[in-house]
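task queued by scheduler; priority normal; single chain, no ligands, no partner chains; default sampling; output format set to structure tokens
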Amino acid sequence: MSDARKPSPSGAAPYDALLLLSFGGPEAPEDVVPFLENVTRGRGIPKERLQEVGKHYFLFGGVSPINEQNRELLAALRKDFAEHGLDLPVYWGNRNWAPYLTDTLRELAADGHRSIAVLCTSAYAGYSGCRQYRENLADALAQLADEGVAPLRVDKLRHFYNHPGFVGPMIDATLAALAELPAAVRDEARLAFTTHSIPESMAQSSGAPGDPARDTPGGAYVAQHLDVARLIAEALAQATGVQDRPWELVFQSRSGAPHIPWLEPDICDHLEAVHGAGAPAVVMVPIGFVSDHMEVKYDLDTEARAKAADLGLPVARAATVGADRRFTAAVRELLLERAATERGEAVTRCALGALGPSHDRCAVACCPNPRAPRPAAAQA
């Protein structure tokens, strides 16, 4: 054992604020198409196509759950910080809808903050889950520089997919979902760990150069999800006494052109396949998502459940971590860990599974932009 120690709860320096950075979503029917125009800017997608894509949102009154869920997480983080004597303000900004990232950074600067830790609501490596957030940060900082705003330091906290505060709530949520199934099928139910599908090429280039996970099929993106899935499956085996329960990593929410290979199988195709193979029930576990936003509410709770109903296949869906107290505590620990590291102190980094704690600063060639290189903040 080294002499590394856990950081003191009072040790947030050099950071003077935390930024919760998320994707954003529409909050009224009239917001849907403008929101999708923000998401797809530069791709030349006609408005008529965006209206078709937006039908998922219209099924929910044109409101994405994500903003309200971020408000809950924001309040939970502030509460956790206050309870642990951490006098650090927490702000919130989005990439694609209000409150916009640039506006929030401008507010941070106006309030006198100069050194900001950033929590992105994406747990894994990958272009859309990590580098694109850092590109958006770079764009916002460049705009503020053009406006004459004093320079800001922004440091993204490391990937938290294998932190106990993320994995633990997912284990408990999976056990709760399993208990929802009829007792007669519970012990034979399969686990389908779900995450957002991305192009195969983007998956393969995910992670940092030199990271062994990047050299595995699917790159770091798939390797990290598989590591979390194994942890949950092993915990379920211990809790239920059911050994060798079948499980798979499956994908959802594909949005790309049909001729471009994306990660498969899709959750609905998977449900059909395992039903045909005789599976009596399935628990869907959305390990790729931090909150129950639209990809969970529509792709799993609506579309996948409808497919299961057509098949006569019993299914249950585990909850995401949301504002679980263990997750907010994990955010505090990640913040204090990074602050202590920046001060040159030795710290113990919490991480479960086989891959170990992620890096603090992303390499320049980490999770490259599939279209063309662009400036990115918070990198080595």
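post-processing summary
- Residues 1-10 have pLDDT under 50 and may be disordered.
- The two ends are 28 Å apart (CA to CA).
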